[in-house]
Amino acid sequence: MASDEPKAKRAKISEKEEPEAPTETTPAELSPNSLFGMGNPLLDISAVVDKDFLDKYSLKPNDQILAEDKHKALFEELVKKFKVEYHAGGATQNSIKIAQWMIQEPHKVGTFFGCIGTDKFGEILKQKAEETHVDAHYYEQNEEPTGTCAACITGDNRSLVANLAAANCYKKKEHLDLEENWKLVEKAKVYYIAGFFLTVSLESILKVAKHASENNKLFCLNLSAPFICQHFMKNLMQVMPYVDVLFGNETEAVTFGKEKGFEMEDVEEIAKKTQTLPKHNEKRHRVVVFTQGKGGTVMAKEGGKVETFPVLEIDQKDIVDTNGAGDAFVGGFLSELVQEKSLDRCVKAGHYAANVIIRRAGCTFPEKPDFN
Ligand code: AP5
Asked: How far is the CA of 354 from the centre of ligand 1 (A)?
């Protein structure tokens, strides 16, 4: 749908609309709440574990799943048996934090919505959001505790088990729809939601996505994990027509292609095909961005154009852990997108942020970025 907003004020993305964008060095003026994120706020509990532990809870060494009844004791055992580290996590929250870190000033360019419990872990998440200058507005309830994510590390692999708990209690009516909260949504020009949130509140995602589409702003989504494509495809495809920028890694790309019956395994081909899926706001063409670890990042644009961008080189022994690498890539990308920079520059910023994060434990970062 067309927007009455003056063109200069709209978020831009297609090559056609890019000439008016600021130069590489002059950022568009940024105001608080320009970048909106909504998702599952989780406290990550990570530890190096052994194979017996994985086997006991039927975990694959490299996977992302939601906790089931059989995982109930896992969290307690993890803390008792191994040396654990706590990090503020949750995919969308990570990316918004990274974007804010890349932007630095003004503070609170990034807004974040999600649900937490009124407990110690919830307090930690609130404190972390404040420290990272993200404008977090949590829906707080006391029926469920703040969600956690066990990161069970063995060698280069990590098995993530998310116990959503409070995160699963996000309610559109009780939070997103509130006038003061919706005003924050309206202030944004770029929206980002990880696919993980498709398991929680499809109606909240659709409300934000429709707002973005109707006002010619940018709506970005992440495939997040193979299980989203395998078990939540119906929800995913309800949102897809609103998606301006789709993110994912190569495993998610291949799973998505398989579940959609594309009958192809090549990531570039899947990106091209996904780019052409039906879209509501036809004025703006979808962009698909698939990262591939140390392999190049694939970006598919209108007209079957596809390009692969090499990642920044790193001595593999300098990698502390790749936990949060994908989220950091997205955060870096969004930090430039919200400043209306070119897509190439967005990818460059994504690679920079990911490269910083993989040199550190968890999705953490130094005081200031050094990105030019
Ligand atoms: P995790 O899955 O560990 O983080 P991620 O951001 O998805 O990172 P991955 O390591 O999976 O990266 P990727 O495969 O997406 O990207 P790629 O390898 O292509 O989990 C993080 C968070 O998820 C946790 O905080 C947790 O709370 C949250 N979470 C779990 N379940 C959840 C749920 N249900 N709801 C909400 N949140 C949930 O790499 C990306 C980029 O990194 C590359 O393009 C490259 O630039 C760089 N890079 C990566 N590896 C290399 C390498 N070997 N060499 C050079 N560069 C590299």
From this structure: 9
Q: Using the mean position of ligand 1's atoms as its centre, give its distance from the Cα of residue 56 in Å.
A: 25
Judged by average pLDDT, the poorest of 11-15, 95-99, 196-200, 215-219 is: 11-15
Closest residue CA from atom 20 of ligand 1: 324
Domain ranges in the chain?
Answer: 20-43+89-146+164-357
Query: Which class is 20-43+89-146+164-357 in CATH?
Result: alpha beta
Distance 35 CA to ligand 1 centre (A): 21
**pLDDT tens digits, one per residue of 201-238:** 999 999 999 999 999 999 999 999 999 999 999 999 99
45-73: pLDDT as tens digits: 999 999 999 999 999 998 999 999 999 89
**What pLDDT, in 10s, does the model give residues 309-329?**
999 999 989 998 888 999 999
Strand order in the sheet with 218-222: 135-141, 110-117, 35-38, 190-194, 218-222, 245-249, 287-292, 295-301, 305-309
Catalytic, out of 119, 327, 344, 370: 327
**This model's pTM is above 0.85:** yes
**Residues framing ligand 1 (Cβ under 6 A):** 39-40, 42, 44, 64, 66, 89-91, 94, 149, 158, 160, 162, 194, 196, 249, 291-294, 297, 311, 314, 319, 322-327, 329, 351, 354-355, 358, 363
